[in-house]
């Protein structure tokens, strides 16, 4: 059973609880005691589960809760749709995003109702037991209506998953050419953002942190590095072969990496020592350092990677 199915089975409506012998009085008692938590009116989850999940899983619980009690059929979109498509987010939004029922949809607490084009509505698909905008529509919406530092990692996660055969996309043409076309064809609000993302998106970022690093290099005019370059037995995140400089992002976990942190640390130390023995300079970046981009640009300049004139 997948993550979404487990979470779906953990969200209970009043009717579900009633069938389990938990009527209104017992329900209120469990809420007071802290055994249950109200996701929204009519949808409940155990407090233990809610406190144990993070990031995308928490957004999934919110979406499932709203879906179970909604009075109409829903289409999830933007970042909520991205999570239901199985993608990772750099920052999880506070609200579930759904397609408006009409021109001006009403909103419940924790829910944002967004306009959707008739074409996107028609192309909606079922993923993880919920109706969502199609994958290309979802990514285009993220590009148009989400700030680039949040949108680009979502898009690059999708491209990485396609490259590694993990994406649920049965179109023979492939995701990248269709997405590129759709981004460049955007008009109206957010179209400039979409076109900019089409210019820079890469299928070779293997973590959200790598996407953020690549964006930083671009924004500060640095030469485009080679990604996932094979050097001996290793692949490195970013390399400038002419300067023999490597940048590795120390986010500890790439997409799908299940090793322990201790095992990763020891492997990375051995890897770095070998690369240095071959004449490469290795710089490591962390999440904290990404908030001080000028320091990164300065460190790269000191080893010969200079912004383009």
Main attributes of the structure:
alpha+beta, Endonuclease, Chain A, 4-stranded mixed β-sheet, DUF559, DUF559 domain-containing protein, Restrct_endonuc-II-like
Describe this structure in words.
This is DUF559 domain-containing protein. It comes from Rothia kristinae. InterPro entries: DUF559 (IPR007569), Restrct_endonuc-II-like (IPR011335). The chain is an alpha+beta fold. The chain has a domain at 208-302: 3-Layer(aba) Sandwich (Endonuclease, Chain A). The protein has 15 helices and 11 strands. It has helices spanning 3-10, 14-19, 24-33, 47-52, 56-69, 78-84, 118-122, 135-145, 148-163, 175-184, 191-200, 208-219, 261-277, 287-290, 293-302; strands spanning 12-13, 36-40, 43-46, 96-99, 111-114, 125-127, 130-132, 226-231, 234-240, 245-249, 281-285. The strands form 4 sheets. Strands 8-9-10-11 form a 4-stranded mixed sheet, sandwiched between helices. Strands 1-3-2 form a 3-stranded antiparallel sheet. The longest helix has 17 residues, at 261-277. The model has no long low-confidence stretch (mean pLDDT 90).
